[in-house]
Each structure stands twice: as structure tokens, then as C-alpha cells.
Amino acid sequence: MRKEIIFAGFGGQGIILMGVILAQMMEHYPDLQVAQAQAYGPVSRGGACRTDVVISDQEIHFPKSARPDFMVFMSEESVKRYLQEGDPEKTLVIYDSTLIRSIPDPYRKTFPVPATRVAEEELKNRIVANMFMLGAVIEMVAPGSFDVLQQVVRKSVPPKSEALNVKALEAGHEFARTHGRG
Questions:
Q1: Which CATH number fits domain 2-178: 3.30.1050.10, 3.30.1360.70, 3.40.920.10, 3.40.50.11260?
Q2: Distance CA 43, CA 27 (A)
Q3: Cys-Cys crosslink for 91: which of 86, 153, 157, 179, Cβ 3.0 to 4.6 Å?
């Protein structure tokens, strides 16, 4: 078993944090190996950024994604820059439908998630769009691991924002469940 995930967006969206949290979560599964690598554009806040997470039951020799199973996009620029790395027939493309209109053909497996809209309108803080998105993708990436993810998020965010981050995570998880992906 090998799963490759790419999270991509722009600096300031918490893209790297999403990958770090997913990688830390995998530490709770001793039979699995995990590798996480990240890349920033020339300007960290506002510039392009991405993180790759590779999960495997075998030793991982290269920490970056070669053919991602999942691509999570949170900006139009990241779609333009990285989408071609996916397999149009196999890669599931999950995207923030608030910031990205659509995923171009021939990519057929897509899942729009209104992460930024929900973060702004319902949670009243755009900064937790990443946690909403992480909650929305977790059952696809690591089925049955939501409780572990919650524990890791609680330890990974500042205490003053813990409740809001967990609320966003739960809202994203529920969104995916009710929209056929959780």
C-alpha cells in the first residue's frame, strides 16, 4: 500500500501545516512509514507553496509524490502549476470551490469543497479553511483516523485557537460525509 498526497496553495493558507499534521498523525500507526516534503515559492506569504505526504507500508525511498493519488488545491495558481503531475484517470482532485472555479478536463475524479466560504461565513475566520479542508479529505486518505487527526490538531495549533480549529476540522469531516466522500 502506498498513498501519495499533494497539498498546494499559496503561503499563508496553512498548506504546509496540513501536510505536517497528516504526517504527524501517521506516527500513531507504527506499521506505516511516512515522509513529508515541502516547497515554497520565492515569497513565502502569498507565493506558491506545496507539501507532499507519502504514506506506505514499505520503506519510502523518495519523499515526494511521483504520481499522486490525491491532490488538494486551495488556489487557482496551484492548479495551473501542479495539476499536470496527477493522472487524469486515477488522481482524485479535491479543491476549494470558493477560490477555484473548476478543474479542467480531462480530470474526471474531482471533489469541490467550499472550505474558504465556510471558514469565512460560518466559522467567521478564513484562517481555518485549511482545517475544514483537512477534515473533508481525511476519510479518503486514511479511513477511520478522524479521532487521531483531532488529537494531533489539538497538539499542533495554539491553545487559543484550538477550539476553532477543531470545529473547522469537524465541519469539514461532516461536509465530506454528507456529500458522499467521507
A1: 3.40.920.10
A2: 31
A3: 86
| Confidence (pLDDT) at 164 | 97
Q: Tell me the HSE value of 109 on the side-chain side, using a 13 A CA sphere.
A: 15
Type of residue numbered 104: P
Domain boundaries, the chain: 2-178
What pLDDT, on the 0 to 100 scale, is given for residue 44? 52
- Grid cell in block for residue 154: 489539538
Query: Which SS3 state, helix, strand or coil, does residue 71 take?
Result: strand
Q: Look at the block and give the residue holding cell 495549533.
A: 157
Q: Look at 58-67, 127-136, 171-180 and tell me which has the smallest mean pLDDT.
A: 58-67
- Report how far residue 40's alpha carbon sits from residue 143's, in angstroms, rounded to the nearest whole number: 29
Of 76, 86, 77, 80, nearest in space to 52 by CA: 86
